[in-house]
Amino acid sequence: ACLSHSQSLSDEENLKLFGKCNNPNGHGHNYKAISLVLPLQIDPVSGMVMNLTDLKEYMQAAIMEPLDHKNLDKDVPYFSEVVSTTENLAVFIWDNLQKLLPQGLLHKVEVHETEQNVVVYKGEETMVK
Q: Active-site residue 69, yes or no?
C-alpha cells in the first residue's frame, strides 16, 4: 500500500495534488516491474558485468526484503517521513542498491506502477514516462 497523502498539506490540497489516489489510510499497488540498468563494462576474466547470483542477492536485500508484501507507510520506516509515491519508491530502491553494489555500477532504476506509468531514476535525475 502507499499513502499519496502528505501530513504537511490540507485535505483539499492532498485531493488536488494526488486526485483519486489520495487516501489518508493508503491504497494498494502491485508494481508491474522494477528494472535495473547496469553499464556494459564486461570483466575480461569472467565475461560478465557482474555475477548474476550476487546481483540477485543484492536485489533481494535492497528491494524484496524491505518492500515485498508490505504496507509502505506502516512497514517501511523510510516512508514514515516520505510520501510513498512511485517516484520516491524509485529513490528508495536506488539508495538501497547503491549501498550494496560496487561503486558506479548502477546506471538507473525503473519502477513500472502500471503499463502507462513508469518512473526512471538516475541518481539525482527523475523522469516520469
A: yes
At the second CATH level, the architecture of 29-121 is 2-Layer Sandwich (3.30)
Retrieve residue 82's grid coordinates.
516520505
Query: Cα(37)–Cα(31) distance, rounded to whole angstroms?
Result: 18
Q: What pLDDT, in 10s, does the model give residues 75-124?
A: 899 998 898 888 999 999 999 999 998 887 888 899 988 888 899 999 88
In the three-class reduction of DSSP (H, G, I as helix; E, B as strand; rest coil), residue 5 is classed as coil
CA–CA dist 113, 118 (Å, integer)? 6
Catalytic residue among 2, 5, 110, 113: 113
Of 69, 81, 115, 125, which is the active-site residue?
69
Q: What is the pTM of this model?
A: 0.70
Identify the active-site residue in 21, 27, 87, 112: 21
